[in-house]
């Protein structure tokens, strides 16, 4: 991951930690946004392979940090989802979605259950606490960052 991506993500985390008291309900519209539906559409698109949607939804600055520490840019992650190493995702279910909106930046936190396996058959089953960042660009909300952490309370 480049220093720019790490720095940008760190900056977002610093500002987010200072303003987490400004929480919006995930189901409540904010300028017409149904955040719960947005989160579900995002993950359903990854699960079902709706790459046309993801190509538009992921900002060029998109960075995914998986629970195993692997990091991927938009190009790298979409390449995996398009290629022979695509994981098989049977369940990708976010729950307890919380939303924190700061102008043109929204931070979504959720608890996501994953069931499936990688291209080599290794289980990806687990429960994760996920931090998602979306930004408003040209009037549309677009994903720019994800950090996944295993939910260690579920072991």
Describe this structure in words.
β5 (105-117) and β6 (126-137) form a beta hairpin. Mean pLDDT is 85; it is low at 10-30. The chain is built from four helices and seven strands. It is an alpha+beta fold and 155 residues long. It has helices at 3-18, 35-48, 51-57, 74-82, and strands at 23-25, 58-65, 71-73, 88-102, 105-117, 126-137, 140-150. The protein has a single domain (3-154), classed as Nuclear Transport Factor 2, Chain: A. The protein is globular, with a radius of gyration of 15 Å. Strands 1-4-5-6-7-2-3 form a seven-stranded mixed β-sheet, with helices on both faces.
Topology, pairings included?
Layout: H1 3-18, E1 23-25, H2 35-48, H3 51-57, E2 58-65, E3 71-73, H4 74-82, E4 88-102, E5 105-117, E6 126-137, E7 140-150
Parallel strand pairs: 2-7
Antiparallel strand pairs: 1-4, 2-3, 4-5, 5-6, 6-7
Keywords:
alpha+beta; 42% strand
Main sheet record = 7 strands, mixed
- Identify the strand order in the major beta sheet: 1-4-5-6-7-2-3
CATH classification, class level: Alpha Beta
What structural class do the secondary elements suggest?
Answer: alpha+beta
Domains counted in the coordinates: how many? 1
Shape call: globular
């Amino acid at each position: 991951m480049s220093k720019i991506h790490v720095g940008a993500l760190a900056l977002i985390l610093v500002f987010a930690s200072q303003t987490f008291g400004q929480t919006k309900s995930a189901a409540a519209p904010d300028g017409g946004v149904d955040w719960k539906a947005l989160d579900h559409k995002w993950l359903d698109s990854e699960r079902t392979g709706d790459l046309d949607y993801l190509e538009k939804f992921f900002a060029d600055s998109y960075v995914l940090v998986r629970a195993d520490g692997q990091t991927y840019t938009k190009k790298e992650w979409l390449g995996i989802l398009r290629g022979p190493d695509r994981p098989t995702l049977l369940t990708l279910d976010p729950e307890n979605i919380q939303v924190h909106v700061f102008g043109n930046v929204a931070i979504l936190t959720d608890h996501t259950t994953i069931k499936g396996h990688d291209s080599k058959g290794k289980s990806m089953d687990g429960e994760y606490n996920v931090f998602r960042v979306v930004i408003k660009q040209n009037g549309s909300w677009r994903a720019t960052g994800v950090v996944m952490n295993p939910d260690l309370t579920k072991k």
